[in-house]
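Forum: Protein Structure Q&A
Topic: Joint prediction for protein chains with partners

I've read a bunch of threads here and the consensus seems to be that you should model interacting components together rather than docking separate models afterwards. I'd like to see that in practice. Below is the full input, 494 residues plus whatever partners are listed. Could one of the regulars post the assembled result?
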Amino acid sequence: MQQAVAPAFKNCTDCPIRHRAVCAKCDSEELELLEDIKYYRSFSAGQPVMWAGDHMDFVASVVSGVATLTQTMEDGRTQMVGLLLPSDFVGRPGRGVAAYTVTATTDLTMCCFRRKPFEKMIDTTPHVAHRLLEMTLDELDAAREWMLVLGRKTAREKIASLLSIIARRDALLGSAPPGKELVFDLPLTREAMADYLGLTLETVSRQISALKRDGIISLSGKRKISIPDMDRLLTEAGDDSDGGYLT
Amino acid sequence: MQQAVAPAFKNCTDCPIRHRAVCAKCDSEELELLEDIKYYRSFSAGQPVMWAGDHMDFVASVVSGVATLTQTMEDGRTQMVGLLLPSDFVGRPGRGVAAYTVTATTDLTMCCFRRKPFEKMIDTTPHVAHRLLEMTLDELDAAREWMLVLGRKTAREKIASLLSIIARRDALLGSAPPGKELVFDLPLTREAMADYLGLTLETVSRQISALKRDGIISLSGKRKISIPDMDRLLTEAGDDSDGGYLT
DNA sequence: ATCGTTCCTTGACACAGATCAAAAAATGGA
DNA sequence: TCCATTTTTTGATCTGTGTCAAGGAACGAT
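Posted by a regular:
Agreed with the consensus. Here's the joint model:
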């Protein structure tokens, strides 16, 4: 579970996954400090990384793969509150208890930093603290954008928003040419999508089928999505352009 | 709009509203700096403070009153993404454009800090930066808690969650004795509540009537709420303990 | 290959909350 | 005080999504 996979980069431009918290403006001095406190952990698809309430003595950055952050009520209702894609950060400095359940939804590698030394580094290197604030503010914006999705969008629009988010992040990392057809793997099961969108898995499945029937997306297998025209997905997702369910 | 109401406090323990960003661990040196860059602004109930996209050359802390942070889609659907109560902070250092529309829902006074000097202060006084990170992380937690409310709770539970949040904050500030009946003013219209909860105002009104009919809350006028037993509100809000709508 | 398991799709129906409509109550100005 | 406006309540009806159920497809283990 805890394998050393020391990568060979010395500054952030060489860092393929741009550990945003620590590499954004990194210099050799910090990296030397970080070398001492970091280690890598890998998880396989479906495996829990940690449970809400667990003791947590590290913070981490996603190197590869996808994980989810979820919250669950006593009666089992579950809401995903964050999606962790490569370069995303997880863990709260200054808090030794996990607030959310983290689950790997694909094979996952995280770069972990021991919490106490990481906190010390934040306190002593202002630009890292600054970068962490930036990242947290970005996450807050994302959470608020998601509140609009959850509170006011229809099921069809919710699916469109999720596909758009995944496609955008995928394009950033994989350097797909912009303006062209987007093709990517869905890193989530229908159930995980439902938990993100505040829907049931049946509704997710039906809406994906409807988008496919309307020619707005196409699927190869269950997980490979292709979107010929992202703008059309976003603008027409709300319309029932040809009557919807019954051809 | 921009009146000087210089209050007479010199450090955070004397500060009745605990400007959290800047007073949490304040010392005289900072306050002297802050005196130069701060000013007060007052708004009356219903008045817009700023629109999403506006140029914004300050950050601010709420002194008294309540404001909302909202996001609106082109077709007019609106979602509140934050509630600003006294001591809450608004504005993003490093960004000169407002991301959300801010509206005063009661008479409101904010303590504003000019953005550029405030940013400089962050960069030069680590504990202020640290405090700002803490606050942002708290807001992120609040946003994520709200995602659970929006995505997975019923209308009745949503109302209960909102009342609980307002009551808790109110109790903190007004120092109500815990465990006793909570009485407070609703600082929001039914429509604003609906925008927070992802409901329509009719549903909000009906659910409040239902809670009243079930004896879980009581109203004096339309806005003064009293909750004899907060636990009961939170645990029974989901139940239709006696059949619900029809007596 | 075959079995068991998990994931996904589809159908029928129910229901929570939305929508449309009207009236009552509160609020603020003249 | 009275009128105009805004806010709130309530009723009737509609609809999008949930629930329950069944079957199919993909995947991993033996």
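Chain B has two domains: 12-128, 153-236.
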